[in-house]
Amino acid sequence: MAFFCIHCRSEIDSNYKACPFCGEPITDFLRRYLETPIDDKYKILARLGVGGMGEVYKVLHLHLNAIRVIKLMRSTIANEAGAHERFLREARMATRIQHPNVATLFDFSTLDDGSRYMVWEYIEGINLHEMIESRGPLSPRYAARIAIQTLQGLDAIHRAGIVHRDVSPENLMIARDAEGEERVKIIDLGIAKQWGEEGDNKTKTGMFVGKWKYCSPEHLGMLPQGQRIDGRADLYSFGIVLYEMVAGIPPFQADTPHGYLMMHASERPRALLDVNPSVTASPELEAIIFRALEKDRNKRFATARDFARAIEQIADSLDDKPGEPAPLPAAIEVTEEPTRVIDSAAPTVATTPSAETVQTVGVAPPSPAGFPFQRWAVIVSIVIVTIAGAVMLLRKPAPVVSPAPKGVVARPVVTPPTAHLGINAYPWAEVRSIRNVTSGKEVGLSAPLVTPAPLDLAPGKYEITFSNPAFRKPITKTIELRAGDEQVVLAEFAKAESAALPRFEGSWR
């Protein structure tokens, strides 16, 4: 039976690790269930993303003719000791929540091969990150409307005894209800955890789960001895989201986990007007945001409901005009950052997919005075990325023979020896420059090179700079070529097995 890529629909060999035409990863689960309905009732329509727990698919319930989302637990996680109990606990927790601002869990089950999955509501719309990215800052009044709905959803989650732990713009969907009214939906409870739960060491204090940009001080272990994370951690995270909605950029920007750790520990956010002079937010709204961002959780709002009420009281007085786009951040979120080239002599920092569970170890920065903290933690890990497949190298050209005048014995004029280089990138890239390190000269390109691309070069050492508009930082790779070499250079902007995948007719992580 023919096998077609779930993304570009090209016919390919099902044994490939990734589609050779578009780079879409091909997993064992996809090979088995792309043409065969899951549990004989869920037909896969598209893959929507990859989270900390596993793959996420848009599916059709064949009996109900209804669109759903299936969240699959990774097989490596499913086989861990205690994974089944954790899966059932998470699913049961989610079924407690029935609220219009929280995604609904319809079903959960285990497949014959031991894989476990949950069936969630499919939400047609965009997430808040996409909205801010496309529109820029939101008007204070519109941001307040989104905030109130989000906090009402968080209140329902907290009253069910659950801390979301990953409140971020990517996990806030903006959809429309049956009457056409905009509605916020909180998604991805995959790392949620019951308050005071002691049995699961995977998410105890000292383990950071979520995104560094939006994490609370409590996420990083800054709690008095014997205390545990509660719903106020989510309120801090949402305070950052609300700040970003109004200003266009988040209050804290760093390019390392340690940088974020220090900012969340002791740095106060800058005034909105200092960050973006065009912001039209009132001092009252700014005061509410800053209260949510207090380092000491006892100084924040006690509940999501209190936070929402504070915004409701000033909502009608807020300006309906958004500010202009803020200056681009100097750094990007390390948990969303593409693969970076890191000097081998320097400390390495892992870049992880959002919602991945990250264990923190060891390094302790100074604690703010008067606030007893448990051990501090900083992630130190090495990301090794393997992308299946390689660029096909073209044959080296034959020697060039110059025509000789009549009466003159023709001598073959052979071009200087060259090396043949296959240039590739995942997911793709444009080659911005190629520089000979020895001579310092740029290699002239007759036309822009877009990967994959073959190129013949004289022997030598070269720096090749790649760029992709979806990633803020270019990547520079260095390669040394000898005469007759046939080599491949690969710039990895993302891991194929965990990169954010294209969204189809909606958004879901």
Short structural description:
This protein has 509 residues and is of the alpha+beta class. It has helices at 28-33, 75-78, 83-95, 128-135, 140-159, 232-247, 257-266, 272-275, 283-292, 304-315, and strands spanning 3-4, 11-12, 42-50, 55-61, 66-72, 105-110, 116-121, 125-127, 162-163, 172-176, 182-186, 193-194, 207-209, 357-359, 419-426, 430-436, 449-450, 453-457, 460-467, 475-481, 486-492. It is built from ten helices and 21 strands.
User: Which structural class do the helices and strands define?
Assistant: alpha+beta
The helix content is 10-25%
Q: Give the CA-based shape.
A: globular
**What is the first-to-last residue Cα distance?**
30 Å
Q: What is the overall pLDDT average? A: 76
**What is the helix tally?**
10
% residues in beta strands: 15-25%
Largest sheet: 5 strands, antiparallel
User: Count the strands?
Assistant: 21
Instruction: Give the neighbour order of strands across the main sheet.
Output: 3-4-5-7-6
Poorly predicted sequence stretches spanning 5 or more consecutive residues: 198-209, 330-402, 499-509
Radius of gyration: 26 Å
